[in-house]
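My current task is to audit a protein record that another person submitted. Alongside the sequence sits a line of tokens, each denoting a local backbone shape. Please read both lines and tell me whether the tokens look consistent with the sequence. Do not assume that whoever made the record got everything right. Thanks in advance; the entry in question is below.
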Amino acid sequence: MIRVVLAIARRSFAKGTRLKTQMSKAALWVSLLFVLFFLLYLMSYVLIPNTSASSESTGKTLLVNSPHSFEVFLEKKFAAVPDVVVSAFIREKSGAYYDFLTYQDSLSKDQAELVIVFPEDFDRMTAALSGEIRPQILTYYDPSDPNSKSAHDWFIKNILSGYGDAIQAEYGRISTSAPAFGVLQQDFSGTQADEGILGSKSIITRMILPLVLFIAVMYACMEAGTVSIAGEKERGTFAAILLTPARRSEIVLGNALGILLHAMIPATIMSLLLTAVFGFFSVGTILYLLILCLSLSLLLTALVLIVSILNRSILAAQASFLPIFFILLIICITAMQKQSTPVLFSYLIPFYGHYYGITAVLNGTYSISLLLMLCGICTVLTVLLLLAANKLLHNERFTTSADDNQDVQKEIRRRNKDRIMLQKETDSPQNTVYNYHAKRSRPAVSLLTYHLFLPLCLLSLFQTAALIIPLLSYIRSDESTSFFSELSHSGGGPTLLIGMVLRLLAKFMQTKSFVLAMGVGYILVIAVYFLIIRVLEKQPMSTAGLSLSGPGAPGRALFSYIRGLALGFAMMLGVFLLLLLTGQIHVTGFGLDSSAAGLFLIYILMWVPQGASEELMFRGYMLPRLSARFGRAAAVLLTSLSFSVLHIGNAGFSVIPFVNLILIAVFFALLSLYTQQIWTVCAAHSIWNFAQGNLFGLEVSGTQSAARLIQTSYSADSYPLLTGGDFGPEGGLIATGVIVLCLLILVFIRHKLDKATFA
């Protein structure tokens, strides 16, 4: 058995080292764009100088999420002057542990000269210390301000040092051998004080090295895995392999071993090279990194092997692996955004645990116990996946025939590919949505690339164009002089630059011209899709779920739209009431200012085409066309994933918002499939955003509306996991519950209707 496995492994390894596989265009463009944006983001750390402007200080310290134990410590320390505890400290609650934009804003506006940020549940974390993991306290200060710098140094030496000893003494621990917490010092630019070659050490350990290793392993597994079994099928040689005495398990293990060896070569080279270049080279670090890369490669090897078995060509296998590749990139993005020390469970989740583990190894905070637990979990998952691959391989059916007959059959299939595919798309009623029938067949990769990038390109174009008029008006104003003066003299790195841009965009959201221009941009997006459907595809608008022809069609469309308004409002009202009843938010005021009444009406004019344009893009245009090619289930998944990824640049985006947006997109997609039109979801989408932002005063996907009928704010003891934090309710578990409940109700109603129909 070993000889057979090694022979197959050598064959698989040799095929995977040619580096001549046909990488799908979609995978290539996704990788190139991701790397381009990452390099631009990284270059800004090098090119933008760090020369923060000094300002007069208030002498106060901002305490964020101050725990009860710290308040008790302050009362004891300043027992002789109790007024200091109240007058010298400002207290806030925040679910965003590393919200450096807000904290920098507090420093720049002279609200405080020092910001101290505690993790939530700090007391619980310090009471249950395990291994080498410690909660981290962030300290923000302005290094160009002597008062801020001296206040920071004094606070570290006289307050936090004694506080750590008090915690350890309370639990009977030795403070010198095991500190209760760590302190991350952040200057005004939001970067750590220990600088490296390309900026701070945090940027290298949290962004550069983990991302490079991830991409190297992912690409190597994809390059070798997709040419293993799928490549044999494409060349017509896999049938001969199955007819050999080799067992299916030996074929699986041999190919898996070849893919694994191929993936570990770049992982080993990159680990040695990058650690040497960036100053992390040591035997322990290299060993940890190689073990992490090995467990990651094992898991990816099993995944790509299953994909290779399920496809019959290299290109099809790579196209099938693309969603996995894309999801892993999203995992990298969300993992690098988390600045606080991840909870223990995060280190044990595959992929997330690998990313956090690499960062912890480079920072010297990783433990052998975490490594062994993660490797054990990955080993179990890999075994299960390999067993599944073995089962799939047992289901393969091939017939032997002469080589010339195989060539003839292959040529016939190639010549009739378009005709067969078009007939399949046209003659599959279960995959037909809105009575759409393709008039021509397009390659799968080309079709996916087109539908994934068209919404992104159109929204980028028209939303950027919407900035022109308000930006020109702002440049002519006196206020812009101070803004650009601050921008030129306060080059605190990209984080400060992003913060200033976000504040400028928030200001534009309060101007009628910008909101109106956004609405016009969404109308133009709808017009572009109308031209594509009617002129280029020569299809009726009913194939996008927007039928207005036939007797009574306008009345049905109006009824469907009103029904969608009621549905979307009821869903958001449920989220708002749950937030209110659970004490996560409280109402601070009612009514509009006279100056905001006009802006309130313009918001309505903006939200109506905004909801309609996004529904037309995903549920109207993309859904039926992908369904005709890949089936309804795949179309719902792809459109929902694309819809969620479209919001990846919004403030506060993380895992929960990503999942919630997928769930709401699935709900809208299923509702569109059941009703065979998108009037209802267009209205539901628009009223959901309008009610969320302008009626109930909540954030809409990371954006705060200016004109709000009800003024709301988060409670001091609110939980970001429930409220969504900076992203708004769409990023919280309460919204998750409401959406899942609506999904279940929709499926139940549909099931009852189906039973009544066939009864």
